[in-house]
Structure formats: structure tokens, C-alpha cells
Design a protein that fits this description.
The chain is α/β, with parallel strands linked by helices and about 300 residues long. The chain has eight helices and 15 strands.
Amino acid sequence: MSATRYTYLGPEGTFTEAALRTLPEAATRELVPMVSVPAALDAVRNGEAAAALVPIENSVEGGVTATLDELASGKPLMIYREVLLPITFALLVRPGTKLSDVKTVTGHPVAQPQVRNWLRAHLPDAVWESAASNADGARLVQEGRFDAAFAGEFAAATYGLEALVTEIHDAQNAETRFVLVGRPARPAAPTGADKTSVVIWQRDDHPGALLELLQEFAVRGVNLMLLQSRPTGAGIGNYCFAIDAEGHISDRRVGEALMGLKRICPKVRFLGSYPQAGVAAGGGRPLRPGTSDAEFVDAAEWLARCQDGRA
């Protein structure tokens, strides 16, 4: 395995590359762009890279399905950290292009819902066609296949384009969450501001089936930060669920919730416990009474005393 190589959703000039370069270790790694999320993750699975950075959630559009599906299937991988990046778009064009010249536009599919209102107001007749990434859209504009692309303003220089319009976003404070993914290993020690990600599968479809799964978290005071359903491919009505929960797998409340899911689900895939981006160590949400590790230990000791006749 190349311990110094990180892959990311390319080509050069993507928001993913910008997010990756915020990591301190990126300065000492070989950063390799890949054509797709599966390609970036397969390089890790195959030992060609130590880790990959890929988008997993957008504050406007929700979960990035390509990443969620890849992490749910195939050879297991694990999330080691996350990065939050504010997202604002620029309309990139070839030099000399005016707004009235723009008849075709492109960008990543996740970008379209974030600029839909701007397009309707300023380019109502422009035809949209999705690209593999925002930077790939910029490359297609460079090649003359589209008139304009929505991408990061920083991508303009890479592809010899100009930012005709900047600071484009329909939603204020939009951001995308990226995850650094590697091969499975022991999770890092808890920080007091952690997140645990899993994918779970239902045993069968029946009234209250999802409620039964969620109760494993609720009764232990574990807050959920993401719940995304994805089809399993086994037919209509068959779903798995990607879940992000507050806390670390070593926290008793989280560990017991996962054990509860393992009892009632045919399959549970652990995707990692890692620090929450933008939250200082020890700065997590205050715990509900009765859900701390000390209270779980006290309850277990009480049960043991009852079993021994010492209650």
C-alpha cells in the first residue's frame, strides 16, 4: 500500500480537492484525482492509496448517494475523519463569453439544486447537462462542449477560464461534508465530540420496522445526525439505512445501541467513529440523564448484585 498517496474525486479543481487541502497531512501526501467516487475508494481497497476523500452530504441536497452506496457495498472501508467546506459557485466561461452567450451549462448533479433559482432568474433558457464533477464541467467548457460550468472560482485558472459571475448560491451558508476513508482498523480514541456511522439492513418490511431500529438509539439517549434510506437492489420496498449518530463506539450508550441493532438486523456495517468537524474536543452535546458511561456501569453492577443476591 502507498502510505503517502491520497485519492479524491477529481479532476483537479474540485471542491473535494479544496477540502482535502485543508487537512494538515495533505501537504506531505501525493494527491491523486480520480474520475469518480467508486474509483477513488477502489484505489484504497486495492492498496493503491492509503485514504480517499469523497463527498458524503450536502446541506441543501442531502446525502451523496454515490458515496453512501459505495460504503454500503463492496469490500468494507472505514471513515477516519470528516471535513466541512462552505460551498459557493462561480459561473466559469471561456474568455470573452458574455452572459447572453450562455446557452448550455453543466456541473455536478449535486450543484444543480444549489443554483436552480439563480439559473431560473438569469439563464431561464439555458440547457443543463450534468458532469462527473464540477471541475470536470469546467474541463468540458474549456474543450468547447458547453458554454459555462458551475464550479469553484478557484478552478478557473486550472482550466483557462474566467469567472463571469461569482458568489452564486440559492441557500445561504451552504456547505458540503467530506469524509476521509481508509481500510478498516481500530477507531481513534474518543474526543468527547464524536460521530459514529453505520449502515443497517431491515430483516423484513412490516409496520413499525423502522421505528424498531430507531428505538435502539432513542432509549439509550443517542442523537441521530443523519438518516438516509437507500434501495438494496433486491426489489421495491427493500432498503438499507445510512445513519450518523452522536458519540463514539466506545461510549456505552452507542455500543449498546449497535449491539441492539446487531440482534435485530440481518446485517450491520460499521463505518467508523471519528471526531465531528468544527466541534472542539469535549464540546459535544450534553448527555441526557441516565446515558453516561458511569450510569451504564452503575446499572450493570446493580444487576450483578441482584443476580448474586446482594441487591
